[in-house]
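Hey, I'm writing a tutorial for new members on how sequence and structure tokens pair up, and I'd like a real worked example in the thread rather than a made-up one. If someone can provide the structure for the chain below, I'll link this post from the tutorial.
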Amino acid sequence: MQTLLFGSLNTVIDVESLQRRAFNIAFSTLGLRWHWQANTYERLSKIAGERHRVAWFAEHHEGIRVTCGLADKICWHKELALTQLLERNHVRTRPGVLRLLHEATDADVETVLQAGGSADEQAILMYARNTLEIFNTLKIQHDEHLHQASALKPQPVRHGTHDQEPRSTVTISLNQQALAHNANFSYAVRCCALSHYKYGPAHQKRRQSLISHLGEPDNPARHLSGLNILQKGIASLRSLSSLDAKETLRQAEPVQSGGFRV
């Protein structure tokens, strides 16, 4: 494995939880007896646009129609509440993220974070910049177009590799299958070979593992399906490398039959 790619800011920080808490604070500030639970917010997140989410919830759950002015007021108070939460240092990384990033740094593996360009994500990136400095590269996506990557620190030195060679990349992304069924948050971890340092359309997709999170010694993760990469409930850099068929073959031990023990 040459590159570890986190496919969204939400895979590193619980962005949706911060947004949901900010909305609930805004509702309370405006005297509205609304409260969004986690499963409610997951369903509403499928609706594009925060004002449309507020309007849909008000009509279908509260039986009222909100004016554009009230929707704008709710969203303004939500942005204010989000800023206050960030100023109080309510940014927390998901279990196992920092541990895995430190393992990648020690092993000279490139780390990349691909984030969205929304105002909320930009604010979280600013307040969490000290935490996110461990990433080699940050990629910002605006309106479904991936912008030029910005290097957060010097790229690690690699010996015997060329930029034109396909790069073995393990990608950590949201498990869309779980989200579609309103299940708890979980990761889809995949290995792909990507060419020319471009994290766009991948080719040569290899293996996949679905896990609840990356795991900590006091908070073990659960294996959901696919290849089991967890060791005592922890997804380590070494275990993630098992998703790479070439890496597995390279580290395999010969057996008497002439094959490989994988």
